[in-house]
Amino acid sequence: MLVSHFLAPLVFLSTTAALPTTPIKEPVRFTSAVSSSAEIPSALSTSSPISLLYQFNETTQLENLAARSNGHLLLTSTDQAHVYSYDPRKNVTSLLHKFPKSSSTLGIVEAAPDVFIVAVGNYSAGPGEISVPGTFSVWSLDLNNNPEKPIVSKITAIPEAEALNGMTTIKGSSDLVLIADSWLGAIWRVNITSGHYSKAIEHILFTNSTSFSLGINGIQTYDETIYFVNSAQRLYGRIPINRTGGATAEPEIIARTLPAVYAWDDFAIDWKGNAWITSHPNAVTQVTLGGRQRNFTVDDPKSDIQQPTALVFGRGSRDAENTLFVVTAGGTNPEKKQIPGQILAFDPRLILKEHRT
User: Fold this and answer.
1) Backbone region of residue 254 per phi and psi (left: phi > 0; alpha: psi in -120 to 50; beta: other values)
2) Residue 92 contacts residue 85 (beta carbons within 8 Å)
3) Are residues 98 and 104 in contact, defined by beta-carbon separation less than 8 angstroms?
4) Cα separations in angstroms, 68 against 65, 144, 166
5) What is the mean pLDDT of residues 234-238?
6) How many whole angstroms separate alpha carbon 134 and alpha carbon 270?
7) Which residue, 8, 14, 163, 233, is the most exposed by fewest CB within 10 angstroms?
8) 3-class DSSP assignment, residue 106
9) What is the Cα–Cα distance from 293 to 101, expressed in whole angstroms?
10) Could you tell me which residues come within 8 angstroms of residue 56 by beta carbon, excluding any fewer than 6 positions away?
11) Could you tell me the sign of the dihedral formed by the alpha carbons of 173, 175, 181, 185, in that order?
C-alpha cells in the first residue's frame, strides 16, 4: 500500500543513470547483477538489471500484483477498483474487472490454480490518505473458463475491517487466506469456501502509530511462518503459525529499515528465504533471514521510479522465475514531474553481482 509520507529523493548504495523517458522496454542502469547465467525475459534488456516495461496513464496508482502460471500478471490499483491483466511477452495490459461501488483493489493472492482472491474497499492513497472502515470485502476471480472474462464472486464483507492490505495463503490449506489490516493492527482469517472470517492474530508489532497510519502491510507465508512488514514501526518480522493461521509463539523482529527514512511496503521471498521489499520512495531492499539488508535504488535526483508498492517473482518459465516484477503507485518526482504507475522488471541476479563487484 502506498506510503505517502516519503516523497523526497534519496541517494543510497548505488551508482546509476536516470530512468529514460521512453516508457516501454527501456533499460535502466541500477546497482547490480547476480551470479546465475539463466536467460533474461524477452521484455528485459540483457545488459541491465532493471527495465521499465509498461507505464499507465497519469492517474493510475498500482497497489499489488500476483503472477499466473502462464506468466501473465494480475494488478490491483488504489485509484480505481480495477484488476488489470498484463502480458509480459506482448507487453500489453487489459482491464480484467471493475468492482462497482468501491474505490480500490488491494491485496491479491492465488488460492487455487487460476483462482485469485482480492481485497476490495474504499481507500485513497497519497497525501491525505483515507481509508473507510466498513467498506471492505473479499472476492474471488476464477479465470479457468475464460481468462478474459473471469467468474467473479463475492466471498464475504468484513464490516469490522479498517484497511485491508496484504494477503497470503496458508501452507496445506485450500480454504483459508490471511489478510493484513493496516489500521486495525491485525491479521484476518477468511474461509474462502464458507465466507466465515475471524481475527487470526493481533499484536503490538502489527499496530500503526499516531503519526503514521499504516501498520502491518505486506504479509507472506514461508513454511509454517508468517513474515510481515510494519510500515509505521519500520520493521520486518516473522511469527510461527498453525494450520489455521493462529500464532504458536511470539513474533520476532528480523530487521528495521536502514536508513530509517525508508518506508517498507510489500515483499516477495526467494528460494533462500531472503525477502525483497519495496521501499518508499524509490528502492528495493533485500533482507536476509539473519537480518542483513541491502538497499538498491536509482540515485539520480530526476528518477522516474516513484513509490514502488509491491513485487512478485514471475512464473511460467525459468526466465520469469528469476525476475522480480515491481509495480509502482507513481508520484511527483523532484523536478515536479507527475509519474504514473509503472511495471518494472528487476533482475536480482544482476543486482547482487554488480553489488559484489
Assistant:
1) alpha
2) no
3) no
4) 10, 11, 18
5) 96
6) 35
7) 8
8) strand
9) 41
10) 62, 93, 330, 340, 341, 342
11) negative
- What are the b/e assignments for 144-161, b being 16+ CB within 10 Å? eeeeeebeeeebbbbeeb
CA of residue 205 relative to chain centroid, distance: 20
Q: Which cell numbers hold the place of 224? A: 509454517
CB 76 within 8 A of CB 86: no
Alpha-carbon gap, residue 121 to 186, rounded angstroms: 17
Q: What pLDDT, in 10s, does the model give residues 175-206?
A: 999 999 999 999 999 999 999 999 999 999 99
User: Among residues 79, 89, 117, which one has the least CA distance to residue 307?
Assistant: 79
pLDDT in tens, 78-94: 999 999 999 999 999 99
Residue 64 CA to residue 323 CA, distance in Å, equals 16
At 127, which amino acid appears? P
- The one-character DSSP state at 354 is H
Identity of the amino acid at 243: R
In the numeric block, the cell 531472503 is attached to: 274
Whether cis (ω within 30° of 0) applies to the bond prior to 27 is no
Q: Is the pLDDT of residue 260 over 80?
A: no
| Confidence (pTM) | 0.86
Beta strands in 250-328 (DSSP E): 252-256, 263-269, 275-280, 283-287, 293-297, 308-313, 324-328
Radius of gyration of the CA atoms of the chain, in A = 18
Cα of 317 vs its chain's centroid, Å = 21
Task: Give the C-alpha separation, 318 to 8, whole Å.
Answer: 36
Percent of the chain whose predicted confidence (pLDDT) is above 90: 66
Residue type, 174: S
Q: SS in 3 state form for 43-81?
A: CCCCCCCEEEEEECCCCCCEEEEEECCCCCEEEEECCCC
